[in-house]
């Protein structure tokens, strides 16, 4: 997997993998903040928060899986060289 590759390629793949956690957390935080402020503005107390939290979780996982797919394609291209 990572053994026998150039050191630069390994660090690049590690950096790309660390972005996956950031995608997940940022999606959840954005969903929470949007839901909270929409609830305050519209007066719909927990409903917008719940809906946008779910949207944020879905968006975070979607971005995480897209990044994982990109890492796998990058690793496949590096290992074939």
Describe the fold and architecture.
With 81 residues, the protein is an all-alpha fold. Helix content is 89%, strand content 0%. It has helices at 7-42, 45-80. Helix 1 (7-42) runs antiparallel to helix 2. It is rod-shaped and about 60 Å long. The model has no long low-confidence stretch (mean pLDDT 86).
In short:
This protein has two helices and no strands.
Keyphrases for this structure?
single chain; 81 residues; mainly alpha; 2 helices; rod-shaped
Give the SSE map.
Layout: H1 7-42, H2 45-80
Helix pairs in contact: 1-2
The ordered string of helix (H) and strand (E) elements is: HH
How many alpha or pi helices?
Answer: 2
The total strand number stands at 0
Helix content: over 70%
Estimate the global geometry from the Cα principal axes: rod-shaped
Largest sheet features: none
Structural class: mainly alpha
Q: Tell me which oligomeric state these chains represent.
A: single chain
Compute the separation of the termini in Å: 13 Å
Radius of gyration: 18 Å
Mean pLDDT: 86
Kindly estimate the percentage of residues that lie in beta strands according to DSSP: under 5%
Flag low-confidence runs. none
């Amino acid at each position: 997997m990572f053994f026998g590759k150039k050191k630069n390629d390994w660090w690049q793949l590690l950096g790309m993998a660390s972005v996956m956690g950031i995608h997940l957390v940022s999606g959840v935080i954005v969903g929470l903040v949007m839901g909270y402020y929409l609830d305050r503005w519209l007066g719909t107390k927990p409903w917008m928060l719940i809906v946008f939290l779910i949207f944020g979780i879905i968006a975070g996982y979607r971005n995480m899986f897209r990044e994982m797919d990109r890492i796998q394609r990058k690793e496949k291209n590096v290992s074939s060289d």
